[in-house]
Amino acid sequence: MDDLTARMARSEWLAALRDPVRSHALRNGKPDLDEILKLFPRLSGEPAFDAEVIASSIDRLETTPEVDTGHPFLDRSVKTGLAFIDATFQGDHPKYGIKCYGQTCHDTFPPTIIAAVDALSAWGLYERAARLWRYWLTSFVREDGTIRYRGTSLSEYGQLLHTASLLAERAGIQGWADALPTVERIAAFLLDLLAAASAHGDLLHGVPEDDEKDKPAVYFHNNAWVAAGLKRWAGLCERCQVSPRTPPAAIRAVAERLATQTRSAIRDVWPRETDDWWLPPQVEPVPPEARPRARITATRLGSYTNYRYWPELLSSGILPADMASRLVQARLEGGGQFCGTTRFEEWLDDWPLADYLSGLWALGRQDDFLLGLYGHITCHQAERHLTAYEQVTFPPGREKAPYCLPCQLVAARAARRLQK
């Protein structure tokens, strides 16, 4: 297996519909991290931060539980990710990354705070998680519940509600209880949108993600996460005795109805032929030239669907097992991954991988989960300093887009599932 690079040219990897690593890595069941680390020349590039600063931060980490995944390299990846949070943030103020991603226009990108709060609270760093979460809510949510960002997707609104519920479950609401009314404004904003859409019997129409903010439509991942987020918010209100404007039971009913409508709409557009892997990301007909045919990453729409829309639909948890499994197979058979990582056009882009891994874990596909996690820390983290760039080339890898925090935190968020 360590001669895979020699046996397969880069052009073959680009053309492959099936992950050239997967069948070999899973031949004996569970993937082996040491074996995967030997497959390719390691990613090279400049560190995002001074090595001594990161090492000092790692030394000061006091996680609960202690990081002990069973493999030293994975442990180091987790700790490095956690250390990068304070290195990336400016005090409590969020930054998406460095270089062009350090510009202020990226500061309020919701996935940054979603990833940071998840990673910190997963490893028992509750005080820091609560402080960052409170700062973000009080600084970047408008009075009408909308987010101060240029292209917030509806899925991100749902994920913010999920983040509030997740933090409350893990650590309670200490340190951010006074920001609960702000979370309610987010929920109320979504409920108002749904009330207007329901009057016409429609699902929610909105922006799918910042890069594609000029292409609003009725996207499945958006509606799925609004449903999931509202359901989680209703549960938080009941557990923490919050009295929102709309009673929790009514919120839950709205969420369940939206989830049902979304599943029905997906079934209506999914090709009946089971060997056709293409699930369009939206209700509206996709122009023929936008539909990927040779492989999922052959068009811009296909690449965005593979790297973000499908993973977020999967992580929402609204799909039954048969539909979720078919979505995973679509990625596996349509050229959607390489060594478990996410393909985008002719390179790799893994910052949303935590969503996909979450979906795999929920399906009980632990071997594919491990391949994705191991592939990520092998292919997306640079040798020695472990900086995770947002986009990298196929091996021998190099930086294609700068470091960003959500990509760095994939290991910390996913590996927590490997410890009790």
Number of strands: 5
Number of DSSP helical runs: 18
Share of helix among residues?
40-55%
Q: Strands of the biggest beta sheet: in what spatial order?
A: 1-2-3-4-5
Quaternary structure of the protein: single chain
Descriptive labels:
mainly alpha; globular; 5 strands; 18 helices; 2 domains; 420 residues
Describe the structure.
The chain is mainly alpha-helical. It has two domains: 1-105 and 336-420, no CATH class; 141-320, no CATH class. Helices cover 52% and strands 4% of the residues. It has helices at residues 4-7, 10-15, 22-25, 33-37, 51-60, 72-88, 110-122, 126-140, 154-171, 180-198, 220-239, 248-269, 300-315, 321-333, 353-363, 366-379, 405-408, 410-415; strands at residues 337-338, 341-344, 347-349, 389-392, 399-403. It has a five-stranded antiparallel sheet. β1 (337-338) and β2 form a beta hairpin. The model has no long low-confidence stretch (mean pLDDT 95).
